[in-house]
Amino acid sequence: MNPPATLPLGFVTNCLGQTTITHAAAVAERLGFDCLEVGASVALDVAAFRAVQRNSPVKLQSLIFSRNYLHPEASLRQAFRAGLRERLALAAELGIGQITMATGVDPRLGLAENILAVLDFWGPIWEAHPDITFAMENCPMTGNFALGPATWRPLLEATAQHPNFGLNFDPSHLIWQMIDPYAPLGEFAPHLKSVHAKDTVVWREVLAEHGILTPYKLAEVTPHGMEETRAPWWGFRLPNEGDLDWARWVGELLHTGYRGVIMIEHEDPRYTATPDLVEAGLRRSLNYLRHLLASQSVQEAPS
């Protein structure tokens, strides 16, 4: 029998709000996490990052900075790109191996033109940083046009010459877009760089009254200060507390041969009001995923 799955488990620091890398690493170590994906609400203090790398058992796995790098408004586009350059410099200096990102999207352009814009902006960056992996999270809120298989295919075909670009697979966003979260794992396995663990619940009775095109959005401010809007018929949840079949999803993920990190992206509003609730949500998610992975057998990677 194959040994039990023991994939590294981490979390995205955005749930902690404005904080320091020292505090984020201390939380991760206390709760028993292996690694962190460091978001924009963590101060970019190089000395503090170095101290964590030197003294903490928690690995700084990746940086996440998803912004609309193709925004049609020049001032915003330039600000987002400046923030990216800061993180590129930090990753290169400290040997942090991944940046989780958004493609950017110009709503004035069609799919083919947006892909060309991605190649124009990102191509030189990917070539200049061959030791950094760039993983696109399929999040519609942060400036992406490649939100599911129909758009992943042409984007990945066009970027095939850049092996350090691929997908950060987040099933939660597929659920509320009514996209199959299971089947794409197999098709896009060669492009999986990392995955986010987050669930979504769809309140069918609310959907039945509002419909998918409701103009009545809910405005929310995330713990890390981003303002987002969503339809009233769905919401984010901790892993296994929404609509995804996690045993099936993790089983299919392992069957692809994936052996990377699973990053918990905690955005469940039931567990974000206080620091204690945030940690309770992280602990609950970690315990569930550990139990689930322990119950799964690592399948042999397909030849």
In words, what does this structure look like?
The protein is α/β, with parallel strands linked by helices. The protein has a single domain, classed as Divalent-metal-dependent TIM barrel enzymes (TIM Barrel). The strands form 3 sheets. Strands 1-2-3-4-5-6-7-12 form an 8-stranded parallel barrel, surrounded by 4 helices. A two-stranded antiparallel ribbon has the order 8-11. The chain is globular, with a radius of gyration of 19 Å. 40% of the residues are buried.
**Straight-line N-to-C gap:** 18 Å
Any low-confidence stretches, pLDDT <50, length ≥5?
A: 298-303
What is the mean pLDDT?
Answer: 94
Shape assignment: globular
Number of helices: 10
Give the key terms.
single chain, 303 residues, alpha/beta, TIM Barrel, eight-stranded parallel beta barrel, two-stranded antiparallel ribbon, 10 helices, 12 strands, 39% helix, disordered C terminus
Write a compact overview of the structure shown.
The protein has 303 residues and is of the alpha/beta class. An 8-stranded parallel beta barrel has the order 1-2-3-4-5-6-7-12, surrounded by 4 helices. It has a two-stranded antiparallel ribbon with strand order 8-11.
Write the layout of secondary structure elements.
Elements: E1 9-12, H1 21-31, E2 35-38, H2 46-55, E3 59-64, H3 74-94, E4 98-101, H4 111-128, E5 133-137, H5 149-158, E6 165-169, H6 171-176, H7 183-187, E7 192-197, E8 199-202, H8 204-210, E9 218-221, E10 227-230, E11 234-237, H9 246-255, E12 262-264, H10 275-295
Parallel strand pairs: 1-2, 1-12, 2-3, 3-4, 4-5, 5-6, 6-7, 7-12
Antiparallel strand pairs: 8-11, 9-10
